[in-house]
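## Example record

The block below lists the input lines for one assembly entry, exactly as stored, with component labels intact.
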Amino acid sequence: MSTAPALDEKIKTVLRDHGRLNKDAMALNPDADLYQAGLTSHASVNVMLGLEGLFDIEFPDQMLNRSVFSSVQAIRSALLELGVAA
Amino acid sequence: MHQPDRLRVGIDLVQISRIRESIATFGERFAQRLFTPDEIAYAGAEEALAAERFAARFAAKEAALKAFGLSHAGIDWREIEVLRHADGRCSLRLHGKAASLAGAPLDHETALSLSHDGDYAVAIVTALQTEPITTHSH
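Predicted structure tokens for the full assembly:
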């Protein structure tokens, strides 16, 4: 799978703006656990809405679960599945 | 007889000012993505109380996901609805996938309590199942 560095940067920007993490979102490893980094259920909603606005997409029901927002790479996989360009 | 899975509980705490920020940032989309039309009508009826009402309802949905073990199931928040009764009591109604996965418990088998003080809203959900819940989460 492509590591999609440009996409990861956009994801991290949304995490920085909406994730209220306890560490620097821009320095996150792709596999870092976002819940361990302080992502709350409400902040994950904000991240979802931020991603939906940025990429003009809507996460379907089956993606509205904790694992999809658990790491940068998990979010990247979901976005690629939704047709977002890497 | 010990039946550990019959009685489940979930709790969630939400900071009201963060909900207010979300409403300011995302506008109507925030409410429309998370809440049913009836929930939006109730919360929006008094603008000064909207954020705390949305916060308590969001906490209730998250508490319900925990109580029913559905955090990983992929549930639309609108499928977990907070009903407010004439006497002020609140209860849960589940729809769609949330209802089918949770076993569509009857109203009297679940209980919901909401509270808020200052900048925080909290919700607790208890669920007494007629059959053991098979989906597990935290």
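Residues 41-55 of chain A form the longest helix (15 residues). The interface with chain B takes residues 18, 20, 41-43, 45-46, 48-49, 52-53, 61-67 of chain A (CB under 8 Å).
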